[in-house]
Amino acid sequence: MCSICGCASGEQRIEGTSSGDHHFHPHSSDNRDRLPFASRRLVDIEMDVLAKNNYIAGHNREHFAAAGILALNLVSSPGSGKTTLLTRTLTQLASGVECAVIEGDQQTTRDADRIRATGVAAIQVNTGKGCHLDAQMVHDALHQLSPAKNSLLFIENVGNLVCPASFDLGERHKIAVLSVTEGEDKPLKYPDMFAASGLMILNKIDLLPYVSFDVDTCIAHARQVNPRIEVIALSATTGAGMDQWLAWLEQQRCA
Amino acid sequence: MHEITLCQNAVEIMQQVGRKNNARRITAVWMEIGPLACVEPEAVQFCFALVCRETLAEGAILHLETPVATHWCDACQQMITLISPGVSLCPHCAGRQVRVIADNGMKIKRIEIE
């Protein structure tokens, strides 16, 4: 009898093989593991795959609450004007409110350089091939940046309307920036992001005369996926509508 | 694109639980992808096999559950079934105050170990 598996084929020989005294069915350790009577058990886990991210996000959120920091996560597709919106916002705010910025990009420090040019502290997180910022990246960046108490922290996420929706960073709100050159059906095409956002900024309204974009239709589409989403239309280039955005920020800071 | 990160996290959790239970191998796993998770099940299937290589879960069978979202109408104060999944319109009152009740997570429900 075979001493490994207990089968009774130990006496088998195959003519012409020199393997000699052992029978021919393979007995690699891997194979032994697949024996039908190896005991298998089910272990219930019920754990979110993002549990670790969400735990760190919770830690970030506690930190923001303790220091009175309002953290906002700006999300959009590439080229919607997040950095231009930020530089203009910071220029107009900087005298009154302490601000800091965490910049997420796959490569380069171009955006962080543009932010620093306004005199506001910024730190760049390069995600490499990664398509989103996660809570750990924000946590590590926070330690380097150490934003002041009662300040405003903008997190500019990687330009991507899909993946950043899934990752809680500990922010108060996600803000979806959509430019009027992109098409009014974006909220329907990327519903998760607009469902996850508290505010939609319609940027580049100075270009409305040149593009076929219906603001009301776009807002209706956004409200289809998120009836509670607030909307502010502005142009970060000309400054139109900026007052409403700054008022929204002030209201959030006091909330 | 982020499916590979999610799979890496999942395999990390599976291995931790497996080791705690003295598993020699993890032979199967049951996962649930929430309707709002923006996670592509096919991409998960593809990435999962890759990230399992040379881990306790090498060769494990992945069972994916993808429940559909349910909806709540604020006006009618009840759960409703949408006529068309992309359009948030209550079939009873034609109102737009419809809220999606759905998980946006990806959950490991259980594993099978040897």
What does this structure look like?
- Chain A has helices at 29-33, 51-67, 82-93, 110-116, 135-145, 186-189, 191-196, 215-225, 242-254, and strands spanning 41-48, 70-76, 99-105, 121-126, 152-156, 173-179, 199-203, 230-233.
- By secondary structure, chain A is α/β, with parallel strands linked by helices.
- In chain A, β3 (99-105), α4 (110-116) and β4 form a beta-alpha-beta unit.
- In chain A, α2 packs parallel to α5.
- Chain A is globular.
- Chain B is α+β, with helices and mostly antiparallel strands and 114 residues long.
- In chain B, the strands form two sheets. Chain B has a three-stranded mixed sheet, covered by helices on one side.
- In chain B, α2 links the parallel β1 (26-33) and β2.
- The mean pLDDT of chain B is 89.
- The interface between A and B is large, with 36 and 39 residues.
Topology (elements, then pairings):
The complex is a heterodimer of chains A (255) and B (114).
Chain A: H1 29-33, E1 41-48, H2 51-67, E2 70-76, H3 82-93, E3 99-105, H4 110-116, E4 121-126, H5 135-145, E5 152-156, E6 173-179, H6 186-189, H7 191-196, E7 199-203, H8 215-225, E8 230-233, H9 242-254
Parallel strand pairs in A: 2-5, 2-6, 3-4, 3-5, 6-7, 7-8
Helix pairs in contact in A: 2-5
Chain B: H1 3-20, E1 26-33, H2 41-51, E2 61-65, E3 70-73, E4 78-80, E5 98-101, E6 106-113
Parallel strand pairs in B: 1-2
Antiparallel strand pairs in B: 1-6, 3-4, 3-5
Helix content of chain A: 25-40%
Order of helices and strands of chain A: HEHEHEHEHEEHHEHEH
Number of DSSP helices of chain B?
2
- Average pLDDT across residues of chain B? 89
Biggest beta sheet summary of chain A: 7 strands, parallel
Mean of residue pLDDT values of chain A: 86
Alpha-carbon Rg of chain A, integer: 28 Å
